What does this fold into?
Amino acid sequence: MSWGALALALTVLGGTYTWWALRNRGVTAAVRGAGLTLLPLAAWMTGLLQVFGDITDSLAHWLTRLVFSPSVWLGLIIGFVAVVMIGGANAFAKRVPGDKPDRRGSKPAPARPKAVTRAQRQDPLIDDEMAEIQAILKKRGIS
It folds into this structure.
């Protein structure tokens, strides 16, 4: 019953704004206001107004419990410490090179330098297409 009274009060308040908007701001603002005016009535008739009320009530209950419960604060602190430990371990693993063991659990052998082949020694910019692009860029004074 009280949800219907709230919907009716909001609709009347919106109707007042719609009338004011029609007089002072024009038809477009009045139509927009009429659409907003009908939303509380539609929410009440579909039951969504009560759902919004239940969600607000549950959120207020959760926030009250969050603020006043020592066990919740302890859980937040433990969660924060866990996140810091995980992030610290990841940051430490990135800073220490070669510290990752292989699948057998031993450290990997140092990598040997590979022999450089003729194809790798050749400058990649010598390619025909790249030469054309470089010529165009030189012509325009970009390179």
User: Anything to note?
Assistant: DSSP finds six helices and no strands in the chain. The two ends are 77 Å apart (CA to CA).
